[in-house]
Amino acid sequence: MITVMKFGGTSVGSPEALKRVADIIMNTESDKAVVVSAMSGVTNFLVGASENPDCDAEAVARQFEAKHLEVASQVLGEAEMKAFRKDFDERMGRLRALLGSEASRSDPYYRDDVTSQGERFSSLILAHMLRARGADSVALTSEDCGIVAEGSPLSGSADLARTASNMAIKVKPHIRGGGIPVITGFYGIRNGAPLTFGRGGSDYSAAVVANALDADLLEIWTDVDGFMSADPRIVPGALLMDEMSYGEAAELAYFGAKVLHPRTIEPVRTKHIPLKVRNSFRPEVPGTLIHQFSKPKGGLLKSVAMKTDLSIISIESAEIAFYPAIVGRIIEKIAENEVVIYSISTSLSSVAFLVHNNDVKATLNKLNSINTSGDIEMIEVKSNVALICAVGDDLLGRCGVSGDIFSAVKEARANVEMISEGASDVSLNFVVPMSKVTDVISVLHKKYVRGEQ
Ligand code: ADP
Ligand code: ASP
Ligand code: MG
Fold first, then answer.
1. I want to staple 314 with a disulfide (CB 3.0 to 4.6 A). Which of 52, 296, 380, 417 is the partner?
2. Which architecture, in CATH terms, is 2-291?
């Protein structure tokens, strides 16, 4: 049996947290591979450095170095610290060269390289901690493992087949021999250089590793008790879900439940690998099991999520009903910029798209570029809206579901700006103004998840 265990930023964010994680790993009886995020705060720090052309490279490197050495010195004994220092200095040398290189800055993948550096150091510290506890552990970078990535800067995805054949040779024998590889999350390798999987991408990395190793279980260890019925930071009464289906978890993660990176489910679902979300600060809690089945719940909804900072772009054209190909042309054009469209809604003479606020400008430029024949009569943008994803059992087959949900929206005095219903029988999505989103989520949760009136 192989278990892939992923630990997030807060779980490896302090000496105490790291010690808890090392104990959890050592107490897990199975062949295993570990995937880690950077220590909390480190990726944000590197993002800042990579985006500031005037930053003092040496000062950044020194601050980064001091933070990691301070933590390492608190979790490693003298002998292990010596061995650690050798690997550490080697990695620091590469980071210094990268930060100091003016030429690299013009590379479109430069930010991927810089921001992915944190994982190389957290994995090194943890591997040395495990060695000190007697394990045959080694820190492996995504380069070492052969995690292959493709795609544009800061939003890569993994090539599952090539990654699996690389890891079968480079990693599996070590695990089968009782070793514990500690692997960098967050990025893969494209043309020999790092490409990150988007913020929070270590969950996806872990799912890719689980897929590649044909693991029997993926455990995502984080700072909450499991997948909950809403973000506990927004809804204080959020409930822990003991079980969910892949489909339910995928919808919620894609539409804003930050506990899992939006793409985590796919690599495990294709191989039917069960996934558990667990709390590294409270390992006694069993967490949430995500697998092929879902347990029906009495009430209307199981969980709600939200995606904020979105904009609705509405396009009017008399051609839409009679020449539907125009919608295809518009989507194709928008997709050229790799803009994600979260929802589409059409009528006789208009079509509306939901995109991130940051993508509005590029989308409008694209739309203007295809409007040479004047087919598009008007384009309107409504910014700062949020999408709510409500997940429940058999939402399509039950009578009165939308009536109930929209009565809750009315109770929160919000206006529904756009609706997507019917595409999935586990979720119903709709858009409200950002200013109302937490009110709507709270009312929905209270009435239809907790069942309180
Ligand atoms: P990690 O660093 O372990 O990857 P993240 O901060 O990325 O952790 O994700 C965990 C956080 O996700 C929680 O602290 C919580 O605030 C947030 N979250 C959002 N939606 C949910 C949900 N439905 N269930 C649990 N946590 C959620
Ligand atoms: N360290 C990366 C981030 O902060 C990846 C992750 O934590 O999953 O986005
Ligand atoms: Mg995360």
1. 380
2. 3-Layer(aba) Sandwich (3.40)
What pLDDT, on a 0 to 100 scale, did the predictor assign at position 67?
A: 98
**HSE, side-chain direction, 13 A CA sphere, residue 312:** 22
Q: How far is the CA of 186 from the centre of ligand 2 (A)?
A: 6
User: pLDDT grade, residue 422 (50/70/90)?
Assistant: low
- Is the pLDDT at 349 greater than 90? The verdict is no
Averaged over 112-123, what is the pLDDT?
A: 98
Position 277 scores a pLDDT of: 98
CB 360 within 8 A of CB 381: yes
Instruction: Report the pLDDT value the prediction gives residue 203, as an integer from 0 to 100.
Output: 98
With a 6 A CB cut-off, is 228 part of the ligand 1 pocket?
Answer: yes
**C-alpha 224 to ligand 1 mean position (Å):** 7
pLDDT tens-digit map of 65-87: 999 999 999 999 999 999 999 99
The answer to whether the CB of 222 is under 6 A from ligand 1 is yes
- Strands 137-140 and 275-279 turn out to be unpaired
Question: Using one digit for the tens of pLDDT, what is the confidence trace for 284-312?
Answer: 999 999 999 888 877 889 999 999 999 99
Whose atoms come closest to the Cα of 290: which ligand? 1
CA of 252 to the centre of ligand 1 (A): 12
Q: What is the mean pLDDT of the chain?
A: 94
Rounded Cα gap, residues 287 and 242, in angstroms: 6
What residue ranges do the domains of the chain occupy? 2-291, 303-449
| Residue nearest ligand 2's atom 5 by CA | 200
Between CA 428 and CA 246, with CA 450 as vertex, the angle to 5 degrees is: 45
For ligand 3, the distance from its centroid to the CA atom of residue 36, given in whole angstroms, is 10
Q: In degrees rounded to 5, what are phi and psi of residue 53?
A: -65, -20
- For residues 280 and 21, the answer to whether their CB atoms sit within 8 Å is yes
Q: Which residue CA neighbors atom 15 of ligand 1 most closely?
A: 231
Q: How far is the CA of 6 from the centre of ligand 3 (A)?
A: 10
Which one is predicted more confidently, 299 or 421?
299
303-449 matches 2-291 in CATH topology: no
- Which of 234, 244, 164 minimizes the C-alpha distance to 2? 164
User: What's domain 303-449's architecture?
Assistant: 2-Layer Sandwich (3.30)
